[in-house]
Amino acid sequence: MHLIVTEKNIAARRIAAILAPKSPKKERVSGVDVYRYELGKGKSRQETAVVGLSGHIVGIDFPKEYNNWQKVDSRTLIDAEITTTPINRKIVTALRALGKEADRVTIATDYDREGELIGVEALNIIKKVNPEVPFDRVRYSAITPKAIDAAFTNPTSVDFNLADAGHSRQVIDLVWGAALTRYISLAAGRLGKMFLSVGRVQSPTLSLIVDREKERNIFVPTPYWEIHVELETKSSETFSAQHSTRRFLDKKEASEVFNKLGKKAELKEMEKGTKSDQPPTPFNTTGFISAANSIGLSPANAMRIAESLYTNGYISYPRTDNTVYPETLDLRAQIEIFKEGPFKEYAEALLEKKELIPTRGKKETTDHPPIYPASLAKESELKEDEWKVYELVARRFFATFAGPSTWETMRLRLEINAEEFRSNGARMLESGWRWYYPYNAPEDRLFPELSEGEILKVIKKEMLDKETQPPGRYGQGRLINIMEELGLGTKATRHEIISKLYSRAYIHGNPVQPTNTSFAVVETLERYSPTITKPDMTKLLEENMDLIAEGKIKEESVLEESREMLQQVFSELDKNRDKIIESLQAGLREDKIIGKCPLCGNELMIRRSKRGSRFIGCSNYPNCTFSLPLPKSGQIVVTDKQCETHGLHHIRIINAGKRPWDLGCPQCNFIEWQKTQKEEQAQQPKKEKPKTITDIEGVGKATAGKLEGAGITSVEALAEADPIELAKTIKTSVKKVKTWQISCNGGIVEDL
């Protein structure tokens, strides 16, 4: 039996359907889908089974004895043993069963470091039950009949060096992440779900974001003034112009010029020209993510959709550095696919060309081609976001074969009372590639018919007060580009790093804004262990992993170098341990401050009750008992936006896998909740006020006894009690006491 192993079940199903002479038979082996078919007859009959994995089926970790954060020193993780354990036992069991039957194995996982490692993991499991089984490897960049048939006609060898490079990344990221995360979290006193994540790629990336925010915070704006006029021709057409001194830094000078301006302008010079706008280069992963981000998709979402389109055969493999189409790709045949369907007119226009000469980017690799549409899709077959990504890829592919777009430009020089004004315009003459790829296209800026020496009427003049702006925050697409420039992460991991920063509540919004927690962590690391926050170390390790893939150095030497680097980092940390603890705890305290208490003026902070529930409470407690509720779950992010009414910082709640919830001002939110409760209660039939404590729902004899011991013997006394103090005394929740108090009032909510 010939066993084919793919990376996912959907790939197994599609590849089996392509290779089988008729529909393959699906069966279950140990609860896993397997697709079987036969080739040939009689003695030449060959049974084939195709099975899909679920990505990594084994994982690496430390032995269990290292799991106790407080008992096991973080530094011991550097040289700790690394164990491999199954993370999907059903698939491992199925592989063993199928492996025993196999007389040949073909690894058909995705062709990159991660895919090669996943394939080798599966191969190692099979070889334990069938040590002598022969094996080979197929490589493909699209799951289409043509690409799959070509791959299986020309199998190659498993690249163990490439798999070792993938494995070294796993080990290095585990050791650096676990050791540093444990150290910093313990120093900050942030354990459990609120631990502080630190990593060799994550932390330098976060440092970039925090450093940009610092630049914004220290930026001192410079005031300047602009002078604009609106002009009218004899035929009543209008256009605008700006003074040739684009920015006046002296208000007095600007005012003098402004006051000098009369009612007439003369067109002194009119210069016409043309400019070309060259077509874009083919999409690699970074270029694709950046373009997808510009049309509203986050990097993580864009890659998730692209991978789904790839496994369904619609686009080529989306993880590639290549920006040059390989000679082996029949580009004309690929365009001919689109002679039917929604892109028919674009395909026909390109196919009229005698030669199809695509643009070329700077990066040329041999693993995968740039991202291109592999087969024709219909909008009705795809979800809205899937179609958006597919169309983006298709249009970019077409645009790489198109000519430049050309523009007619016009520059005007005018005078108003000897003061020079200028105005620029442009109109598209030839759309060129922009017809195929209309995203973010500049608009025409047209002038009316004009001639030199013409006198124009000044119908409006204005002097605008402006000031220079701080550097902008990074959008996710721009951040991906910078990470690539600095060698942070890989094409396959950069979007995941950004997603992790969001899920850890280190950043929020887009453009990306760091939280106070980020400042606390990054500033502490930059001060006491700067190696962690700089890209140099990570870039060096990435280069070494490339050398492993090329077979130039061994994995173990890179792992050893990594351990030595991490030991040096820990020497820096241990030397400054007390300062790190002080710095982190002081910084993290600021991340809990919401604003000023409306009752006493002290700080309102995010706090936890003894039972673990979260609320906003006054730092002047127990003298001040003002409090506001908070949601039970989700990471709390204190934003820099403040409520104009209450002066409190707005709050954002982050739950893994869900859209962030902008709760806004916690006091406004609570007031709105109270209002809703009152409205709902007003629609309910009125309840009679309880006469005794035991008439209240949820208060039995035992609870009444506790209340009596706390001095609460009447409904009136319970209604007037301090809920926080009473909850403490009788050892129950504040929420329960407040519910009883609502019942005391006949179910009517009282304002705070």
From TrEMBL:
PROSITE patterns for this protein: TOPO_IA_1, TOPO_IA_2, TOPRIM
Gene Ontology CC terms, in alphabetical order: chromosome
Biological process according to GO: DNA recombination; DNA repair; DNA topological change
Gene3D superfamilies: 3.40.50.140, 5' to 3' exonuclease, C-terminal subdomain (1.10.150.20), Bacterial Topoisomerase I, domain 1 (3.30.65.10), Topoisomerase I, domain 2 (1.10.460.10), Topoisomerase I, domain 3 (2.70.20.10), Topoisomerase I, domain 4 (1.10.290.10)
EC number of this enzyme: 5.6.2.1
SUPFAM superfamilies, per database record: Prokaryotic type I DNA topoisomerase, Rad51 N-terminal domain-like, Zinc beta-ribbon
GO molecular function: DNA binding; DNA topoisomerase type I (single strand cut, ATP-independent) activity; nucleotide binding; zinc ion binding
Gene name of the record: topA
Reaction it catalyzes: ATP-independent breakage of single-stranded DNA, followed by passage and rejoining
Presence of the UniProt keyword Zinc-finger in the record: yes
SMART domains found in the cross-reference section: TOP1Ac, TOP1Bc, TOPRIM
Source organism (scientific name): Methanosarcina siciliae HI350
UniProt cross-references to InterPro entries, sorted A to Z: DNA_repair_Rad51/TF_NusA_a-hlx, Topo_IA, Topo_IA_2, Topo_IA_AS, Topo_IA_cen, Topo_IA_cen_sub1, Topo_IA_cen_sub2, Topo_IA_cen_sub3
Every Toprim domain range: 1-145
Name assigned to this protein: DNA topoisomerase 1
Pfam family, one: Zn_ribbon_Top1
Isomerase found in the keyword field: yes
